């Protein structure tokens, strides 16, 4: 049993050092913080909207967060080898339907980040879902 543990320890150490021995920058990680607010047509914040973020060179993608009672969302996106410009896909959906102010139509957006530095908060305005968007299609 001791021999197996030693072999596993050596293998773990080899994996760790081989990852660290790569060229500088190959395993570097960078973080971009994205924040925003989601409102309805009248400018009122919408609670509990699901915000799904997807990006290339990702550590954890896709990532989903929900808007707060103030309609705000915040997420840290971790990248391997971040290169500019980079694109982040943002999907907005209403998982609770008519609760929290009504049913809202889903929306998608792509934002391109051109350089390092703080990003301005993003504002999204959602409209009410139409009957075809909020009910299943029948054949």
Structure commentary:
The chain contains two helices and seven strands; from the N terminus they run αβββββββα. It is an alpha+beta fold and 139 residues long. The strands form two sheets. It has a four-stranded antiparallel β-sheet, with no helix packed on it. Mean pLDDT is 78; it is low at 1-25 and 133-139.
Q: Brief description of this entry?
A:
The chain is of the alpha+beta class and 139 residues long. It has helices at residues 2-20, 131-134; strands spanning 29-39, 50-55, 63-66, 72-80, 86-93, 107-113, 122-125.
Tags for this entry?
single chain, 139 residues, alpha+beta, 4-stranded antiparallel sheet, 3-stranded mixed sheet, 7 strands, elongated, disordered N terminus, disordered C terminus
Residue windows where pLDDT falls under 50 for at least 5 positions: 1-25, 133-139
- Arithmetic mean pLDDT: 78
Biggest pleated sheet: 4 strands, antiparallel
By secondary-structure content and strand pairing, the structural class works out as alpha+beta
Instruction: Tell me the fraction of residues in β-strands, as a range.
Output: 35-45%
Helix content: 10-25%
The coarse silhouette is elongated
User: How far is the first residue's CA from the last residue's CA?
Assistant: 62 Å
The number of helical runs is 2
Determine Rg (CA atoms, Å).
21 Å
The run of helices and strands is HEEEEEEEH
Work out the number of β strands.
7
- Largest beta sheet: what is the strand line-up? 3-2-5-6
């Amino acid at each position: 049993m001791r021999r197996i543990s030693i072999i596993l320890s050596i293998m773990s150490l080899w994996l760790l050092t081989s990852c660290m021995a790569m060229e500088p920058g190959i395993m570097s990680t960078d973080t971009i913080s994205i924040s925003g607010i989601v409102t309805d047509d009248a400018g009122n914040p919408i609670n509990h909207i699901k915000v799904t973020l997807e990006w290339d060179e990702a550590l954890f993608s896709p990532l989903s967060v929900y808007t707060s009672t103030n309609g705000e969302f915040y997420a840290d996106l971790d990248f391997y080898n971040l290169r500019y410009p980079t694109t982040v896909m943002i999907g907005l959906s209403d998982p609770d339907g008519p609760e929290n102010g009504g049913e809202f139509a889903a929306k998608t957006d792509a934002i391109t980040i051109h350089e390092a530095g703080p990003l301005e908060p993003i504002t999204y305005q959602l409209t009410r879902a139409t009957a075809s968007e909020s009910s299943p299609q029948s054949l």
